[in-house]
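We store chain and fold; example below:
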Amino acid sequence: MKRTPEIVVLSDLHLGAYGCHADELYQYLKSVKPKILILNGDIIDMWQFKKNYFPKSHLEVIRVILKLATSGTKVYYLTGNHDDLLRKFGELELGDIHLRNKLVFQIDGKSHWVFHGDVFDASIHQARWLAQLGGKGYDLLIRLNRTINFMRKMAGLQPVSFSAKIKKKVKGAVKFIDDFEQTAVDLAGEKGYNYVICGHIHLPQIRTVEAKNGASVIYLNSGDWVEHMTALEFEDGKWKLYQYEDDGLSVHQPLLRVPEPKLDKRILRKEEVYPEKVIAAFEF
């Protein structure tokens, strides 16, 4: 039986790239029937796109998204840096699929600001070729990592994440992530938003952060389907992080080492949010 979260947010699927966990993503999408699906950037990896590589499993993910859109789910596709060619079309409506660069909506009077986050990445805007080269190197690292983890699994060892180790040990990477999150929170605080939801940095997160102006903002990041296989889900009046695991799709964040936020009651109340209220909030 399918689960029915009111909202699902996915980002950084990187369909068309070798690193995408398309089979797992397909299984996840088949297991849910949300009222609203937000695809928050880097869905189709146009930087890595090759004529000889777009396997059936990746096409099946697109097919199931289209099926959701034609069976009552409102789908918002927000552009990221890897699919920024779509930004040329501006805002576009294709039935229940809505192309946007950002999204602002309210739930129970609390404002949510959703965007991919590449606007904060100077390398993309100042040296695009370098960012694209880094993307190819990242994809190669992921493929190498999977090969080694397969061998480790055969030997009875736990998997390791090369990219996670690099992010933790390279001071520049740590600073970039910290700066990214704080900048998103500061801007949200200035604009009066209660929540800011991003992707881009492949680091799933839910936490309450103080903005520069003293406002409390809940920062959320939906992670990715290259390393973490995570999604954000809004259900029963609160946001949760979901992580896919091979032995089932029913457990929320079983492996995700991200502490649950200490929710500020002034920011988020555990009130029942009816689906019609959520849908109405998107009609702006």
Notes: The chain has one domain: 7-281. Residues 208 and 262 are 7 Å apart (CA to CA). The chain has seven helices and twelve strands. The longest strand covers residues 102-107.
